[in-house]
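Researcher: I'm preparing a figure for a lab meeting and need a structural model of a single chain. I don't have an experimental structure, so a prediction will have to do for now. The sequence is pasted below. Please return the structure as tokens so I can convert it later.
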Amino acid sequence: MRRAIFVFLSLVVALSMAAIPADTISARPASPPQLSPPSPAQQLTEDELIKEIYDELDDARGLTDDRAIKNQIADLKKGVEAVEDLMRSGDKEGALKLKKAIADRLVIFINQLLLASPGMTNLAASTPAANPLYDEMVNIQGKIGILIDLEEKEIPQEKRPPPPTIERPPEMEKLIVYSAKFLCGPALGKEGVQRGSYSTAINIHNPNNGTVYLYKKAVIAKREDEPRGKISDFHRVILQADEAIEVDCIDIISLFGAEQEVELTAPSQQTQTILQTTAVSPVSPLIRFIKGFVVIYSTAPLDVAAVYTASTAVGFGFDVEYLSPSRVSTITYTPPPEEEACPTGCACRTEAEAKEQGLVLCQGQKIVCAYDDNQRPTKYCFEKPTAVGRPSLTLEPEYAENRVGDSHQVIAKVTKNGSPVPGVEVEFKLLEPDSVHSDKLGVLTGTTDASGQATGFNYTGDKEGKDVIIASATVDGYDLEAQATKAWISKPTEEVECPQGCACRTEAEAERQGLVLCQGQKIVCEYDENQRPLKYCFEKPTEEAEPARITLTPTQARNKVCTYHKVVATVYDASGSRLAGQKVYFHVDGANTGAGSPPGADFEATTDANGQAVFSYHGENPGEDKITAMAGSAGPVTGASKTWYTEPTEQPRAGKISISPAQARNAVGNKHTITVIVYDTNGNPMPNVRVRISHTGAHNFAPIELTTDANGKTSYSYTGTNTGTDTIVATVDNLSAKATKEWYTSTTSPTHR
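Model: Understood. Here is the structure written out token by token.
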């Protein structure tokens, strides 16, 4: 730590030597004049602020006898005079540039004042020494910051840079959370810290062998009696193996979007001349004091260290804090659903089509294979029923929209091979925190009637939003679950007029007339009575461009077998623009040749408005696949590789053994039965496990071995012929359980107590 402090101080000394010889600077130790009384600077105009800065610069010159310091203060005063000239000429951008340059010069000058005196390097090691010149310069620095704020408010909004790219963490992914404190900018003594200049740099390193995704945000902390500080959006960062990044004060400000530094045009000739004559150069210093936390959500453990530096009237402070994870968090985020290909032997059908063809849900589950334009499920995977079919559970309606104040009823239906199953207990609940009425409704149970139906929630919505209703039941040993979504709306959706050259049509009308989506987007121009889109804006198609290039993402991938792999093809024309409505043909060759839908055939897809087509398939066999994609019947071709691997399945181990009854008394001549149950480490009964039984005491038997049944149980009986006590021990691996059995005759039986 001492070496780090020494290096830091050496660097600052080296940077400052060019401006002021440190060995010539000294503050006058004589009794200083009174500082300018503080004023409510935030309420002053620009002219009033500049006048106060002039007065305080004059006061600062009177606090020292050192000529070098006086010259520096005089140069700063010339810079403020130049700001006034630029403001009078109407060059606000030039004035803002010069204000930032002065703020940066003040930071360097304040640090030089500290280097000129034997200040402590550890702020906690000394009480603050009186340094009126230092305090005066920090006060001036704060007022320069207010001047910059006033100028930035008048910069046109279109000249402000866009906010950073924001993404939320993925759905239900376990994320490791780090929280790092930050202090940034000049403090004037009323911010809960000592007057001075503060800086924080948070270093993040990926020590893992693979890629780590992290999501960072910043939170401003204020006093309890003040309004809560601002919370930024998430900013997604990708760290490859062994890569590192730093989050400093400028990065923290940029997370809040509108509060980041203003990007200005090149300074005018007058501004350039003033910058040269005032001997200052702008480097975008931080001029506001903020404090709070940087919160980092990560998909894997990281090395996180926060470096804190401070310069105050006492001296320089330097500290490093290594952060441990504060917790493991689950952040819920529901992305748009993706269509999936049906498993082998199943077909994609609407529920009406499946009912007509006598099909049942594929694998007893609702696997969505098609969505409508509003991302509502329209088709599911179905298969032919087997001789002994699996039961299924559905919710009706699966999706509904209602106005706030209306009532909504949910009905669950249990079937098996297309026939209703009565007498099944169904549990209903709302998914939290995705449901707006989760605080209103608890868990409800109902039993299916002769038609296989059970009535669930029947409630009135009192707020806008979405409810996700989950029903669960157990039938024939199968754990079944179904889900439905209820949207509550309070007012009709506003219809819009179509852009010039576009007409409002239904999709069927547009297809008959050969029209395409207006501007390549789905612009809703009319809704039905349930506020569902009815018509869109369409236009005549322009001359179609030919595909010239196609790419596949990812080009290489590795997955476990029996999972789905998704490939995205992007089609471009000769100018590099993405092409919508292009046919793309996919083919798989290798370990899973011909995989796709339908099985054994090439898969065809059409590019969307972003020029992309999606293909996904189920890898059944380990090995390598070569995936090729072709745009059009004779267009460009590209390829990607996919490796499938298997992992050994870990066999369950015995975790607990029980024997019953553990204690018993019987008269000689009666039969006694012992039952042993074996459980695995997850608490589930284990079938086909060999249990060794030893029997000693009044009846000495040779050890026997028994095998548990499908319920993890085994038992045996024997008849007592001798009086006394038996000890019975059941053993599996290194686990054992013991029971005792006492035998008595009518003459030896003790009095019953």
